[in-house]
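Threonine synthase
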Amino acid sequence: MTSPTAHLRGAHRHAPWVSLRCAGGHAASDPALWRCPDCEAPWELATSPEFDPQAIDTTTWSLWRYAAMLPAVPPITLGEGGTPLVRVAVPEGEFLAKLEFLSPTGSYKDRGTAVVVSHLRALGIEEAVEDSSGNAGASLAAYAAAAGVRARVFVPAHAGAGKKRQMAEMGAEVVEVAGGRGAAAVACRQDTGAAAYASHCWNPLFLSGQSTCAWEIWEQLGGSVPDAVVCPVGQGNLFLGLARGFATLRRAGLVAAVPRMYAVQSAACAPVAQAWRAGWPQPVAVDEGVTIAEGILTSRPVRGDEILRVLRHTGGAAVSVADDEVRAAQRHLRGAGLSVEPTSAVAVAALPLLRDQLAGAEVVVPLTGSGLKTL
Ligand SMILES: [Zn+2]
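Structure:
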C-alpha cells in the first residue's frame, strides 16, 4: 500500500478542509487519509454544523439548500437532491416512497458523492479511486467528470454490465476484479497511487450528503418526520445518513422524536440482521453469498456498530428477505408505475414481515436505484 500522504501529491495541502477525528479521539493529520492510521477506525467530522431552519436556502432546489449545514466548499453539483415523496399502495396498507432513483445518475449515491467530490476538488485533488458494485462508481464517474477529476473504479467481476457501461461512458477507468465485493475494495486500496480514495463506505462526508435526504423528508412532511423508515442496508450509508439527519433535527428541537429505523438485508448476506437477532454489539463478517440484490452485498459494514445502535435507540429492527420476495416486491412496484433495481426492492419486500410493527404508522421507504440500471 502507498504511504498515506501520497494521496495528496500535487494537491493544495493547505486548502480549507473539515477536521476529521476517529472514535478513538485521534485527529487526522491529512484530509485525504481514508481511515485513522492509529486504530483503523473510520473518520468522523470533528465538528459539524447544527441544523438551523433559518439557514435553509429556499431559493436553491437541490441538496445545496442545506449548504449552511454541510462542509463549506464550492459545490460540484448536478442538481442532486430534491427527490419526490409519493404515496404508494401495498397489500399491507401504504407507504411514502422517497424517489432517490431520480437522482442525476439514477441512484441515491449522488447526494454523498456530490459532497465528497466537492471536498476533494476544494483540496485540489486531481484523481479519485473508489470500489463499488456499480452505483457508487457510476456516481463518482459523473461527479468526477463534472469536477474535472480523473476517476478509477474497482468493481467485482459480477457487477452489472449496465452499471459498468455507465461508469465507462462518464470517462471513468473501470477495473474489474475477480472475486467478490470485498476483493474489489482490497484491490482498490492497494492501487491508489497518487489518487484520493473517495470511499462511500469510509468517508464521513458521504454520510453528510445522505443526511440531506432526512432534512428533505422533514420539509416535505411540513416540518415533521415519519413514524418509521424502512431502508435497504449493505454498508448502511443511506440508513446512517438518514439516522444522523433525523438526530440533528431532534437536537435542534424541531421534532420530538426520531423515526424508528428498520434495516433490510438480503438473506444471502445479512450480517446486520444476524447480529440484531443475536443481540451482538457489532456484526461479524459473513460470506457475501449470491443474490439479485447485488448493491447490498457487504460481508461486514464499516459502521456496523453504529447501525445496531441506531436500531436499538430508535426502536427499529433488522430483517432479511429472500430473492423471491424481492422479485415480488419489484413486480409490485412496477405495477404501481415505479421501476427500481432489485436492491431497491428489498425494503418493500420486508413490509409484509414488519406488518405488525408498522401497523398504523406513517412509513417512508427510500427507493434507491433506478430500474433502468438493470434492464
Ligand atoms: Zn484512531
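The radius of gyration is 19 Å.
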